[in-house]
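Q: Study each token:
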Amino acid sequence: MKFLLLLCLSALVSISSYAQNQLNQLFSEERYPEIISQLESAKNTLDDDGYYLLAAAYLQSGALNNAIATLENFNNSLPVKHQDLLCKAYFETGQYPEALKICQDRYAQDSTHYGNLMRYAQIKSTEGQHDSTIIILNNYLAGDSLNYNANMLLAEAYQKVNEPLEAISIYKRILRVYPVNQKVGAKLAQTYYGKKMYKECFDLSMEFVDTLGYTRRFLTMAGLASFKAGNNGNTVTLFKRMEAHGDSSLITKKNIGIALYRMENYNQSLPYLYSAFSLKDDDPEVCFFLGASLGQTNIPLRGKPFLVRAASLLQPAPGLMEKVHLKLALMHEDAGDYAKAIAYYDTAYSYSPSTVQYLYNQAAIYDYELNNNEKAQELYKQFLSKLPDSLDTKKGKDLYRARLKEVVDQRLNVMAEEDFFRQGVQ
């Protein structure tokens, strides 16, 4: 804007037939309609600089089509600064092919012209040619490495070509020059978060919180990073800090509630999850954790409607559907409704066939609760047949399976003996 203003003021030197001081003052005061009124009335007698000033006044006042028409109707071939102004007008009106033609010609003449270069890079980015954008901007930054706008556009281009580490490097470079720039800090924190670099996201966000005091944007990022990293106590602390400042948003209620659930503070989690549910009753995570929390109370089946709702919202996400049906199975098993518990274990197994423990859970219910030896043995044997040939007992999951295998082997031996004596008695 300042660059364009200076160009326009310098152009007044060539306008000999008008009160240059008056036009100068009008332009500095942004009184563009008055400039337009004076210059339009003498349109046929304007020199190059007069046409330029008229087009610039149109552009600054928002009459972009008039600016374009003025420059397109210019009698002579457009001087360089007129080309730049026309290119800017084309760009602002979204006429990218027309702007691109000028950008390419101007870039070939002078690859260091900042205004043209930025339009050129932005047009390439708009057209999805992010690799070209990266080349153009890297060439420019080789001579002006700390240019803020060029670095920001380059970082965004790297993100669009799925090179977040390059983007991170650039955002960090900008922050070294502008350490309290919240826009850059937020973009870097979000990039860390998307890359699952939760510690880096948390540390950066807290740096801004320590510097700026209460700031919802960075407290939220720090809280989400803590949540993803499994630091539930920290998650609760950060979001409660936001709550203390009057924040009652879904993200605050939801994350406090889920973190408290993970800490097994089920009764404390319920008010937050109920609040979150009242704000958004079609959030599958809210429904799931509200149902799961209620499942830990004295009346576990109160949670069933919320888990069923979660299941209806989650389809067809196998991982989450598995968890929903596991919780429903546990609820019904605790309530003594063994037929439904078995059915839900079986559905959970259908979503996660590698989790063979669900077969064991069903077999155990048939064995110890329903006294159905035949069905129990069938499922015990199916459980054994689904186990890998070798189990790495150094791993928690395989160690658990190995122990279950020992239990099932022993139980099948006992059941075989019981069958033998039972048949002998008969």
Remarks:
- The chain is about 75% helix and 0% strand.
